[in-house]
Write a structure and sequence with these properties.
This protein has about 500 residues and is an alpha+beta fold. The protein is about 30% helix and about 25% strand. Helix 6 crosses helix 14, helix 7 packs parallel to helix 13 and helix 10 runs parallel beside helix 11. It is built from 14 helices and 18 strands.
Length: about 500
């Protein structure tokens, strides 16, 4: 009979091998290291609040069952810091309340393990609220060690690539993403209550590119043998619902996708909220922008002043409204409203050191100068009004100047956070503007919109006077939470795949 080969002795100095050995010991003892459940009846945060006034050194007879992840262990497991989603509480394991066999099992626990503890509530002589355990049960074995100095990681992208680890060890990350959820809930609450908005869902797959000027992602549906675009904006579908009379006000909060660059304030998929309301115009949409931001600030944070970088941003003030051309004139001393000849406008931009394409239209010249000379200076909230027609294919003509439109963008911290129109509802005008976009697309502009004939047909059935509005949820979350990177406010941001 052949003698079985001896098994190599595991290297217990290796964290993974050490945990494997403990896992084996747990299984060999007849225990399940991956439990089916646990009868939890209390959360750490709730206990901290309920017993906030419990005197130092006081023992109660109140029995609780708590569960969470082990974040620290001291004195061979006598003291365990247990963290759940609501907060942290200490578990006190002592021979006075646990038998020897139960205490022995603590030797197989590691940082990161998820355990359930049953016992009574007490306040230690050092003032720590604790559960005096009568039993501690392993619920899930953690096989990988938690980072010891997570904030000291040289590769900051690991926080985003392994968001689950980031959330385990980084309270700031948990707090930021929870605030994001509160922000989105508050936006919905305001729109539903104050604007009587009906929340809807529209397609993510678009057969025709439209709704915004942006480069799309393209995908293919095999059964239909047709290319589709991941939506860049829901606008044209939402306005179809207004035409159909579904409601006086419809809105959607959902993802949009743009095949563009990644930066601290750009992610290829992002969250926006778009709203359309009958019998309103762009001025009403500016009121909506201020109203929703102030409501969110007060409800979620209880304040209207926020520190972002070196600036204190006050969203509680009355937000000024200034035209794009007037802001350009303030910054450059050049009044483009008096230089409407496109060749002269291009020459003026060149004098200002702003590069524009040799075939750029007048409105594109103005927008380029604004972007380079003005945008970064708009730290406090401001509505930038009267956008040029050349860059606003879906906005209604300005009621007093045909080279402008009733379009506004709102800026905070030098960033656009909202875009709003008095909506174009003249089908002939919309058809003509779509045709201009098609010409630009044929000339090589991948961001130009396509001709959506069905949308024109919808307008021919009649779109009431309507105001339209879109808000960038991610950027608003960045400003209100003081997050320096858009990745901080997105649970799983887009990253370059590892090889």
């Amino acid at each position: 009979m052949t003698k079985p080969a001896s098994q190599p002795t595991p290297d217990l100095t290796d964290p993974f091998e050490s945990r494997k050995a403990k896992l084996k010991a747990i299984v060999d003892a007849g225990d399940n290291p991956y439990a089916y459940g646990f009868d939890r009846n209390a959360k750490a945060g709730d206990l901290q609040a309920k017993y906030a006034d419990l005197a130092v050194g006081t023992e109660t007879e109140d029995k609780v069952n708590v569960a969470g992840r082990i974040m620290a262990m001291r004195n061979n497991g006598m003291f365990i810091d247990l963290m759940d989603a609501s907060g942290k509480i200490q578990v006190f394991c002592h021979k006075d309340s646990m038998d020897e066999a139960a205490l022995k099992k603590l030797e197989n626990l590691d940082l990161g393990d998820i355990v359930g503890a049953k016992g009574t509530v007490r306040r230690t002589p050092r003032g720590e609220l604790s559960v005096r355990a009568t039993s501690v049960e392993l619920l899930t074995k953690c096989m990988l060690p938690l980072p010891e100095k997570y904030h000291g990681l040289t590769d900051i992208e690991q926080r985003y690539r392994q968001r689950y680890v980031d959330l385990i060890v980084n309270e700031d990350s948990r707090a930021t993403l929870r605030k994001r959820s509160e922000i989105t809930a508050a936006i919905r609450e305001y729109i539903v209550k104050e604007w009587e908005g009906l929340e809807v869902e529209t397609p993510m797959l678009h057969a025709i590119l439209g709704g915004a000027t942006a480069k799309p992602f393209i995908t293919h549906h095999n059964t239909l043998d047709t290319d589709f675009y991941l939506r860049v904006a829901p606008e044209l579908y939402l306005k179809r619902l207004i035409v159909g009379g579904l409601a006086d006000c419809v809105f959607e909060m959902n993802r949009c996708f743009r095949n563009e660059g990644i930066s601290p304030k750009h992610n290829p998929e992002f969250t926006s909220v778009e709203l359309y309301k009958t019998y309103t115009d762009v001025s009403d949409m500016m009121d909506l922008t201020e109203g929703v931001v102030k409501f969110v600030a007060n409800k979620v944070f209880g304040k209207t002043e926020f520190i972002y970088g070196e600036n204190t941003i006050d969203v509680g003030q009355k937000w000024p409204r200034k035209s794009m051309c007037s802001l350009v004139q303030e910054a450059t001393k050049v009044d483009f409203m008096q230089i409407t000849d496109v060749v002269a406008a291009r020459a003026e931009a060149k004098k200002l050191g702003v590069h524009v394409h040799p075939t750029a239209k007048w409105g594109e010249v103005v927008a380029a100068v604004f972007e380079e000379k003005v945008e970064d200076t708009l730290i406090q909230p401001i509505h930038v009004t009267d956008f040029p027609l050349d860059i606003s294919p879906l906005a209604k003509l300005h009621r007093s100047n045909p080279i402008l439109t009733e379009r506004t963008e709102t800026y905070v911290n030098g960033w656009e956070i909202a875009n709003m129109f008095t909506e174009l509802n003249d089908p002939a005008d919309q058809q003509a503007r779509f045709e201009e976009q098609v010409k630009e697309r044929e000339a090589g502009n991948e961001e130009a919109q396509m001709l959506d004939g069905d949308f024109v047909t919808a307008l021919e059935y009649g779109l009431p006077p309507t105001g339209g509005w879109g808000l960038g949820v991610d950027r608003l979350c960045m400003i209100l939470t003081g997050s320096p990177n858009i990745r901080d406010v997105i649970c799983f941001p887009t990253l370059k795949p590892l090889k």
